[in-house]
Amino acid sequence: MLLDPLVQANDVTTQEHRSILVALLTQGQPEMALKYSKIRQSPEKETYDLRLDIAIFLANGMVSKVKQSFLEMSLRNLKLALCYC
Fold this sequence. Notes:
about 65% helix
């Protein structure tokens, strides 16, 4: 139902989006979590979202994607550190 094209991106809040992904992972449905995350991407990714992406990729055996997410997380942390200097 949430993958229906009639559901708009602003119909689901960021917290609801995260909760859906965590629920799918904890219920043993990593393939569905991956499909949902590809179709319904969070508009603004925070460090928590990148960690969630890593968990989804690892659950699906996608190690190369984990490396990419770690790079994104490192760059985000570096930018934050530079902003606070």
